[in-house]
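Figure 3 (text version): structure tokens given as input.
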């Protein structure tokens, strides 16, 4: 009798762990993404020291996807504003608050001021699910999400952070 109960408990725990791992993979490792498309502006989210997101956004703009790249200068110390390539206008900002929600709010204001109807957002892959949620809350423009890959060295820490940040966005701070 005791063995049967232990078997059911362990089976239940294994099923919960499997569900958690599958959900983590879907939300943060292989989130829904879009193909690049022609937009009014590309928004590169900040916080990556090597500015991989800004570099990718600039690359997309030089390929003709947008005439404007909006770069969030997140992180400490703030990253420098990248130099604009030919035929691309670069707009840099520092979000307030200095987080993805602040970036979504600022991008929404810029879209309204400039009458932009379509934005491409470049988050990190692990941040894409939460960025999509927050940008959809903050703006009504058409959004495309084209993330960049994450360095594997910080993956466990980043996943833990994203679980907490996503829970906060879903439960605590449910507005833009």
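Below: residues designed for each position.
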């Amino acid at each position: 009798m005791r063995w049967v109960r232990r078997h059911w408990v362990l089976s239940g725990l294994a099923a919960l762990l499997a569900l958690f791992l599958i959900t983590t993979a879907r939300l943060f490792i292989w989130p829904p993404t879009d193909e690049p498309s022609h937009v009014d502006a590309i928004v590169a989210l900040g916080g990556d020291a090597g500015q991989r997101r800004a570099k990718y956004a600039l690359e997309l703009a030089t390929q003709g996807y947008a005439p404007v790249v909006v770069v969030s200068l997140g992180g400490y110390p703030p990253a420098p504003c990248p130099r604009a390539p030919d035929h691309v206008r670069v707009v840099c900002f520092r979000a307030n608050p200095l987080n993805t929600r602040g970036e979504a709010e600022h991008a929404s204001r810029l879209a309204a001021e400039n009458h932009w109807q379509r934005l491409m957002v470049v988050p990190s892959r692990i941040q894409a699910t939460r960025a999509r949620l927050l940008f959809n809350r903050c703006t009504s423009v058409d959004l495309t999400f084209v993330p960049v890959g994450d360095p594997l060295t910080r993956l466990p820490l980043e996943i833990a952070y994203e679980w907490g940040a996503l829970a906060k966005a879903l439960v605590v701070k449910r507005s833009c």
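Helices lie at 2-29, 52-62, 100-114, 128-138, 155-172.
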